């Protein structure tokens, strides 16, 4: 009886099975068993399944889903065995959720809270990915500093940083991305619940992009300034590009990557009263096409030395694109989402902006030089301010039967 | 609950299938006997009635002080008297008509009907007077006495205990930890501690049964209770607790998180009602 109830239950079918009623289930255990393990057929647009297990964690090179729910956590235990235990439970749970399945045992006792919190019942997998990382504090609290990667340390302070503790740091992070916001939230909520007593929320951020339904041409998403964001990303379908820019290739972090998260508030009221020419000069790109100034198409190469007839640089040297591009050799994989969090009660302005997320194999060699250039000279700084910052080592991928962080504890 | 229903159905199905001929009915693999928790429920009943009895005595002292206009004495007696009610809340709240009369906060019920502890609390701490509050004081005495009489009739069930334990902590999470319970006197930590003590009483009574089911869970709950008391003890003052408005944001968050960390494993207490 118990075994049969513990079988994995697809969220879409749990309701159907329930509807048949207890008597129906008892007609024949074998028949009922196959009913419960029947998986919902996945449609490729927004209802698909992104495999959890693999050499790399999903949610890094995965095509960005419509919604993000991000949680930064504080570790409240110093006991490594407790940490390993919840990482094992997280592994199992995340794998089930990404398949669109309910977690834990089917709810059968009226005197116990159900294992699965239920708000994703009946919903499909929605391309859910759950990506886990550990921050510098994780190694210190668990006395694992000998394993702490040199790359993983707090960022230096950059010009104009206005970081707030309530949006910064964290010992662990969970990045849940899905094509449904409720599926993404459900994932983080249930994972935090599983580790309750061992972790606490440090900060969280719900964020969004355009939806795939609305963006039928699959264009580069636009940020809240109306400009395309992510054009210069390395090609996620290219193994060599990912090996060059994203995946760590030695030590226990092999197959992992480093993540930088910055909560960038955007002064959208100020931006909205800025003339188009000034907006384009600030980004160094045309708003409509996303092409570098003076070029026709979005993916035309960025030539920072190109001049107009008067000898002036077409892409201003202090534009965001020129500074981010540099000599074009150092690239980071950006996977940012926009946020809109009500208003800044002091000013009455929108509190909106970008949850900037980037993945890179080396923070010191890739992110820091780029961000230093931007922080010192970027014209865009007039319209933005960095309120939060965190760095995490995104753990290597998990093979079936393994668990998150296995190579670290090995 | 549902498991029991399923098994009964299974037995019925079995008897239908075997009705013609075979007398033997195959026993289902797992036993259906729920553990006998009557000793525990009786002990809890005694505890709860004991607390309510003390609540009546202490409330009388408090109300008399109000009636004779001794503001300082009334203020002193307010929080400790309430603690008895807060400890026994799963039982005390079983009487839906009396709880709002005794414990409603301003805005919980129509202003014209508002009386009880918090009405007098506002008089003492905000208006600084007992004048005009004599009737509320007498009504409070009558209501608590009625509660004491009614409590005798309560049938304490295991369900009441397992849901009651977490409910007590939920009370803490949703009102006491935010300072919304005793918003004029700021004595929320007295209620906070009493709710935790009431939940702990239930846990201790069921601990033995729980250990038989899941030793690690029982151990975890014990540790988490200790964590909560460690934090509460930081805010002890004399026989009571410091006022809520003396707590820092960090203190409040720490207390709140410790309740969440305790209540999550405690919410699994219901497994004691399942067959072994």
Q: Topology of this protein?
A:
The complex is a heterodimer of chains A (410) and B (276).
Chain A: H1 2-6, H2 11-26, H3 29-37, E1 67-75, H4 80-98, E2 129-134, H5 136-141, E3 172-178, H6 181-194, E4 199-208, H7 239-245, E5 257-266, H8 268-272, H9 276-283, H10 320-325, E6 333-334, E7 337-344, E8 349-360, H11 363-377, E9 384-394, H12 406-409
Antiparallel strand pairs in A: 1-3, 1-4, 2-3, 2-9, 5-8, 5-9, 6-8, 7-8
Helix pairs in contact in A: 2-3, 4-6
Chain B: H1 2-17, H2 38-67, H3 71-87, H4 89-92, H5 98-103, H6 116-127, H7 134-151, H8 158-174, H9 188-213, H10 215-234, E1 236-237, E2 240-241, H11 249-266
Antiparallel strand pairs in B: 1-2
Family (chain B): Belongs to the EfeM/EfeO family.
Protein name (chain B): Efem/EfeO family lipoprotein
Organism (chain B): Domibacillus antri
Assembly type of the chains comes to heterodimer
Question: Helix count of chain A, per DSSP?
Answer: 12
Distance between the termini of chain A: 37 Å
Tally of contiguous helical segments of chain B: 11
What is the strand content of chain B? under 5%
Helical proportion of chain A? 25-40%
Q: In this structure, how is the largest beta sheet of chain B organized?
A: 2 strands, antiparallel
Task: State the fourth-level CATH superfamily of the largest domain in chain B.
Answer: M75 peptidase, HXXE motif
Low-confidence stretches of chain A: 1-6, 15-44
> pLDDT under 50 segments of chain B (min length 5)?
1-29
Shape of chain A: globular
The chain-level mean pLDDT of chain A equals 90
- Overall 3D geometry of chain B? globular
Radius of gyration of chain B: 23 Å
CATH topology of the largest domain in chain B: A middle domain of Talin 1
Q: How many strands of chain A?
A: 9
Write up what this structure looks like:
Chain B: Pfam families: Peptidase_M75 (PF09375). Chain B: Belongs to the EfeM/EfeO family. Chain B: This is Efem/EfeO family lipoprotein. Chain B: Keywords: Lipoprotein, Signal. The complex is a heterodimer of chains A (410) and B (276). Chain A is of the alpha+beta class and 410 residues long. Chain A has one domain. Helices cover 28% and strands 18% of the residues of chain A. Chain A has twelve helices and nine strands. In chain A, helix 2 packs antiparallel against helix 3 and helix 4 runs antiparallel to helix 6. Chain A is globular, with a radius of gyration of 23 Å. The two termini of chain A are 37 Å apart. Chain B is mainly α and 276 residues long. Chain B folds into two domains: 119 residues, M75 peptidase, HXXE motif (A middle domain of Talin 1), CATH 1.20.1420.20; 120 residues, M75 peptidase, HXXE motif (A middle domain of Talin 1). Chain B is 67% helix and 1% strand. A two-stranded antiparallel ribbon of chain B has the order 1-2. In chain B, strand 1 and strand 2 form a beta hairpin. Classes of the chains: A alpha+beta (410), B mainly alpha (276). Chains A and B meet through helix 2 of A and helix 1, helix 8 and helix 11 of B.
């Amino acid at each position: 009886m118990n075994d049969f109830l513990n079988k994995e239950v697809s969220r879409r079918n749990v309701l159907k099975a329930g509807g048949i009623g207890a008597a129906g289930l008892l007609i024949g255990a074998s028949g009922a068993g196959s009913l419960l393990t029947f998986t919902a057929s996945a449609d490729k647009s927004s209802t698909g399944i992104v495999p959890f297990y693999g050499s790399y964690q999903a949610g890094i090179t995965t095509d960005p889903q419509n919604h993000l729910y991000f949680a930064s956590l504080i570790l409240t235990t110093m006991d490594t065995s407790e940490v390993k235990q919840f990482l094992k439970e997280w592994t199992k749970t995340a794998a089930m959720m990404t398949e669109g399945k309910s977690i834990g045992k089917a709810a059968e006792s009226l005197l116990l809270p159900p294992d699965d919190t239920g708000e994703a019942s009946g919903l499909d997998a929605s391309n859910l990915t759950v990506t886990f990382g550990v921050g510098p504090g994780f190694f210190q609290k668990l006395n694992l500093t000998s394993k702490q990667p040199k790359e993983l340390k707090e960022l230096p302070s950059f010009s104009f940083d206005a970081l707030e503790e309530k949006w910064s740091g964290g010992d662990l992070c969970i990045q849940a991305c899905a094509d449904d916001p409720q599926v993404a939230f459900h994932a983080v909520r249930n994972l935090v619940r599983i580790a309750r007593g061992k972790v606490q929320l440090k900060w969280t951020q719900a964020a969004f992009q355009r939806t795939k339904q609305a963006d039928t041409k699959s264009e580069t998403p636009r940020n809240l300034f109306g400009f395309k964001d992510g054009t210069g990303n390395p090609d996620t379908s290219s193994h060599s590009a990912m090996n060059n820019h994203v995946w760590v290739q030695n030590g226990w972090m092999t197959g992992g990557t480093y993540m930088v998260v910055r909560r960038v508030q955007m002064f959208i009221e100020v931006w909205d009263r800025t003339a188009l020419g000034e907006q384009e000069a600030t980004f160094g790109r045309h708003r409509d096409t996303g092409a570098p100034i003076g070029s026709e198409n979005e993916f035309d190469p960025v030539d920072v030395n190109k001049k107009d007839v008067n000898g002036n640089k077409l892409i201003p040297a202090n534009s965001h694109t020129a500074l981010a591009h540099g000599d074009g050799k150092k690239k980071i994989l950006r996977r940012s989402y926009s946020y809109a969090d009500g208003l800044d009660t002091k000013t009455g302005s929108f509190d909106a902006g970008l949850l900037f997320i980037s993945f890179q194999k080396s923070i010191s060699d890739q992110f820091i030089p780029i961000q230093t250039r931007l922080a010192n000279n970027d014209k865009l700084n007039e319209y933005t301010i960095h309120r939060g910052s965190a760095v995490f080592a995104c753990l290597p991928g998990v093979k079936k039967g393994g668990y998150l962080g296995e190579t670290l504890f090995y | 609950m549902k498991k029991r229903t399923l098994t009964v159905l299974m037995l019925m199905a079995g008897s239908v299938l075997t009705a013609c001929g075979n007398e033997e009915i195959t026993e289902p693999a797992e036993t259906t006997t729920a553990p006998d928790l009557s000793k525990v429920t009786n002990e809890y009943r005694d505890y709860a009635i004991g607390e309510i009895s003390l609540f009546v005595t202490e409330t009388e002292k408090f109300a008399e002080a109000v009636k004779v206009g001794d503001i300082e004495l009334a203020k002193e007696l307010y929080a400790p008297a309430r603690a008895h009610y807060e400890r026994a809340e799963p039982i005390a709240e079983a009487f839906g008509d009396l709880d709002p009369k005794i414990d409603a906060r301003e805005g919980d019920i129509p202003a014209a009907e508002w009386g009880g502890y918090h009405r007098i609390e506002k008089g003492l701490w905000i208006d600084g007077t007992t004048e005009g509050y004599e009737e509320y004081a007498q009504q409070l005495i009558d209501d608590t006495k009625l509660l004491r009489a009614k409590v005798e009739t309560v049938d304490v069930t295991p369900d009441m205990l397992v849901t009651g334990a977490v409910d007590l902590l939920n009370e803490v999470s949703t009102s006491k930890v935010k300072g919304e319970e005793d918003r004029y006197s700021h004595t929320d930590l007295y209620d906070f501690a009493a709710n935790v003590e009431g939940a702990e009483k239930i846990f201790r009574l069921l601990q033995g049964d729980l250990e038989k089911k899941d030793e690690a869970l029982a151990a975890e709950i014990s540790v988490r209770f200790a964590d909560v008391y460690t934090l509460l003890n930081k805010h002890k003052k004399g026989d009571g607790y410091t006022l809520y408005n003396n707590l820092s944001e960090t203190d409040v968050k720490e207390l709140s998180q410790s309740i969440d960390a305790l209540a999550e494993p405690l919410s699994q207490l219901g497994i004691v009602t399942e067959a072994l």
